[in-house]
Amino acid sequence: MGGVDSIKGDRMEALAATFSGVLLQPRSDGYEEARRIHNGLIDKRPALIARCRGTADIVDALGFARESGLEISVRGGGHNVAGRAVTDGGVMIDLSLMKGIHVNPNARTVRAQGGVTWPTICCRSNW
What we know:
Helix content: 25-40%
Strand content: 15-25%
Largest sheet: 4 strands, mixed
Strand order of the largest sheet: 1-2-4-3
Radius of gyration: 16 Å
Order of helices and strands: HEHEHEEEEH
Number of strands: 6
């Protein structure tokens, strides 16, 4: 696997140029908070946290990680007890900013983006 040295250079600049979310590296403001998950015993440090705002950001972050040879983890609400939402030295694709939700009360269905948590779904659906 790559690591922090693997994310420097042209690939990183190309990702940053089109990414609408937030890219955090270990020295970035907000990195420490963004890497934490619900289980405080998990202390992994991704080389890059890609806080996505939409599908295009997810696609770009996945492509970047694959091209760079970096392990990928995906964080939704951050409640994965086993800690699989965070990777050491890889790219954490953070969906927590993606909180779009559509409730269809007639069909009794909900469509939610990856950052939506269960309390929000319960509150918005009122079933």
